[in-house]
User: Fold this.
Amino acid sequence: MSESHDAILHLMHEYCYRIDAGDTQGFAELFETGTWRVIGDPGGGDTGTEAVLETLQQVILYDGKPNTKHVMSNVEIDVDESSDRASARCYITVFQAVPPDFPLQPIFIGHYYDSFERVDGTWRFVLREISPDLPGDLSYHRADMA
Assistant:
């Protein structure tokens, strides 16, 4: 694995860690210059920290956390060192539990399709597209789906 591959994988993991910790500000900052969107969303997604942060207001927090675990698998990363660009794809499974009312279960299974760029030696998101292949019960995760 290359240094770029490792940095991109770290960025992908950071996405999961921040949202699971309830760090909505830190999560939104990952898209300071990037776009975060769900495929099929007529709104077209959110670009920039403030837009992402506004959408995250729909996430339901329990003592400051959404009680979720985002688990990525089958991660593939392609890096073009000469153009400072990269792409990635992976499966995503989101688990949630809100005891005693909502037992542990997968609430979302899909794909992440990512584009990255390297600016001043640092990799960042250009685009994360989320494909909702097998959505489950999101009523304890997002206020707009309750």
